[in-house]
Amino acid sequence: MTAADVLLLGLGAVAVGSGLLVVTTRHLVRAGLYLVVCLGAVAGLYLVLTAELVAWVQVLIYVGAVVVLLLFAVMLTRAPIGASDDLDRPGWPALLVGGGAGLGLAALLVDAFRWTKVDLPEAGTAERLGTEIFRSWVLPFEVLSVLLLAALVGAIVVSRPDIGTRE
Amino acid sequence: MAGYLGSYATLGLLLLASVVVFVGAFSANRLLRPASPAEPIGKRETYECGVDPVGGDWAQAQIRYYVYAYLYVLFAVEAVFLFPWAVIFDRPGFGATTVVEMAIFVAVLALGILYAWRKRILTWT
């Protein structure tokens, strides 16, 4: 076991454990905070796997922005401070789908790679990603801006019912 | 401490050292200080600006504030693409074309801000 293996196992355990807490806790706000731990551990996994820029993007976008969005969404609801007992729904279908997808993917990956040893690639720095994006992937990059614009306009229209109605 | 993981090991060591300093300082404080907390009436009450709170502890936010959070997410995504761009745009083989590509990207997103502005999302009501 190398240091990278130990780190991967530890961070993976943290990610899975906090992920379980997200879905089992009865407190809505705590679920959002456990999600921070889970996404942070995933960022750590990226970092160990030398995907440097992706790891920090994960921290910036997911741990930062997306969790803020989620907590905002929680604040829109009526009164989630304290235990919400009505959160619990029959979990069996979700368990079946989630567990099935996880086990299926794990089986596929184990079968595909067996005991192949893969050396960690050269670090995915901002320079390497920038070269890739602006040399080979310019069109998807520009289309992405249109996607973001559409999402922004959609969010504005959905959150302001007075837009689009004729007076 | 060489190589990719080694450089982060230095950072990890720094974080560890800072945690040790923090825990050490507060534990030393706890060991050395006298402890006789007073319990006057109302010490553990919550209060707001010196006034006892009235009503519940939860104010339901309006949905229009959601747009601000959403704008933040969008422009965080935009900012993320600025980092790799800023590193490479003056390298040989990139130059003006790359600058124009990023300008188009930012301009399309600026249309979104323009839309929000024209629809009076940004005014505080």
From TrEMBL, chain B:
Enzyme class, spelled out: translocase
Keywords: Membrane, NAD, Quinone, Transmembrane, Transmembrane helix, Transport
Primary location recorded for the protein, binned into one broad class: membrane
Keyword Transferase among record annotations: no
Reactions catalysed, as given in the entry: a quinone + NADH + 5 H(+)(in) = a quinol + NAD(+) + 4 H(+)(out)
Gene3D superfamilies: NADH:ubiquinone/plastoquinone oxidoreductase, chain 3 (1.20.58.1610)
Location of this chain's protein in the cell: Cell membrane; Membrane
EC number of the protein: 7.1.1.-
Transmembrane segments: 6-26, 67-88, 94-117
Membrane-related topology note: Multi-pass membrane protein
Family of this protein: Belongs to the complex I subunit 3 family.
Summary of the function given for this chain in its UniProt record: NDH-1 shuttles electrons from NADH, via FMN and iron-sulfur (Fe-S) centers, to quinones in the respiratory chain.
Protein name: NADH-quinone oxidoreductase subunit
